[in-house]
Design brief:
The chain has 684 residues and is α/β, with parallel strands linked by helices. It has 27 helices and 17 strands. The chain has a 5-stranded parallel sheet, with helices on both faces. A 4-stranded mixed sheet has the order 11-13-14-17. A hairpin with a 3-residue loop joins β15 and β16. α22 crosses α24. The protein is globular, with a radius of gyration of 26 Å.
Length: 684
Amino acid sequence: MGIRGLTSYMDANPRLLKRHQLRNATLVIDGNSILYQIHSWVHGDERLGANYVSYYAKLRTLFQNFRDCNVSLYIVFDGGYHKMTKKWRETLRRSKERIKAGALVDGKQKKQEKVLPALAFEVLLQVLDEFSVPYLRCDEEADEELVSLANEFDCPILSQDSDFFIYDVRKGYMPLSYLDRELSSDVDGNYLNCRLFHIDDFVDHFNGIKKHYLPLFASLIGNDITKGEDFGRFFAQVSLPRNKKVSGRKIRGLLEWFNYAENEESAMESVLKFFKKDERESLQNLISKSTRMYTEPRKGMASLFRSGDLNNGPTMATASLERSLDGATIPRWFLNEMRKARIPNMMVNALCHRKVVLLCQVEDHLSPSAYQCSLSLRSICYGILLQSISDQGKAITVVEYTRKMLNLFKSEVAPTYSLGKCGVLPSLDDVPELDVRRRRETLLESCFCEQQAVDGVTADLQLLVLSLRYWKHQSDCASDDHISVVLFVLIFFALNAFRKSAESPTDPAGTLLWSQLTIDDVVRFRSAETDAAYESIKKHYSRANADHLKHVDSRIPHAFSEWQACLLQVFFLNRLLFCPLADKTPVSLFNGPLAYFLFSEMRKKKDKKLFAANLLGGQSSLVYQYYSYLLAAAVSPAFTFESGSFAVPPTLVSAEEEVASIPSEEDAEEVADRFGALSCSGES
């Protein structure tokens, strides 16, 4: 959220940010800003769904530019929220706003806005791993850790958060929106043009306002803790610029007001004197809490980055996640995986706060939430997370917030503690002690799959097959056509990536079994048939990029959003079980617009096999045969999940309740005593 209006004020006064050439440097990066900001660079029809191919390409270009400029990077991601105060209300408000952008009504968005797709965080992690960029996740919000890390490494922060205009970052703050996307070069080598903000330049510009007044300034304007409206009586006495067209009149007027303050104590008194005595103490406590955020940053991540060992290295300074809501100690392996960003915030929030927000994707507003079909997987995850607490005989549920029609609803979900064949699910303490066979069986049964299905494909496709089988089993709208289209898209972009590379074609025919053949193996086999498959799908891709449809059948992107939600949950369950299957899937090869056009064509055809064969270079082509093999693995009815095998079926144990209004401060604080708060799941 940041400081209201401050980014706009800086944009209107660019002289406050100095031009800078970024090269031969170290940079600390706000990972969440990268996640969202780079997605805003992706162009296309938002109504057609996620375009991970373009997102992946934008991310790779950015990090290649950093490498070409010899910039060393350290990335920090937000964790969960510690207390359910204003930030919780802001989470709910943003979730409601996202529904307006994601839920399609008559094929149109109610709000023209980018919708971060469910697997975007996975794509970002894939790129970071490819470039060997170190990254960690905080226990809570990352701002204070970023400041401490930047000052310890003596380098700037790259972010898109106006709070960094207030923190005293010695080497400055670099707004991501001012970073050039294209490389420049001179006699000294490559560099990226950007702008750098220094707090000393800022205070000098305003007649030398004291630097230590800025946390109070931010608190009065309004930030993640305070609301500027609460200080309306004070601002009524502040002299503002007469010209109402001046950008940031309130900001400028308040900064000039501080020039007349003798010290912090007198400035605080000047603010509070406009309020009743019974209001002053609570306002002062709120302001003090806000100012401490800027003046007492947490420390701990620098030592973790240096040691690279979460097990034996120094622990984080914050211990907010050492215990769950019920006081149980959280296992070290779980905390380590969370801090390595492999366990998502969603799981932490379910464990520590019993609350999860499922962010709306591109969905049909008349259909159930795209997350509905993955409910049983989430219930199983909740069961593993809360198994040790269930032994105490307590009735436990997890509150989920998700879309229903065009509103945000909450419902309570009962954890699943036992599966039919696998029996009682392990607790978090038990997971590392289980042999891999037991963990794999639990994952497979959860996804309605047998061992033979995953044995028949290479490691990079096993989780994909699980997600497709699960989706087909659980969804009312998933068909063989949908699954075929997912495979068409993945194969096409694998072909596309190979053609852009400098690798030489190979001939895998006769040298590998089908079960040993990866997508990369297939696309490296250059033949007339594979060229025909590439050119055939490319025609649809060109149309997907060129056509702007007046009407969109929102049921099509909705179905693929369901699959993405299923795949995401398969990822999470696999990691929660300590990865019995390889933690890799080519998610960066999926493209919603192409899937939309391919499915629109395929559903018109009576002979689906003929359509697929014509699309993929003929029935004799290696590409078509490989597709047929994968399709059989994904849709084969050989394994039937026994009905009623859930000891406690994953159900909504309370009626869905619309979140009609955002909780008040008093309500939020009351709930905080019981639950704490959460971060968005969608990685969220």
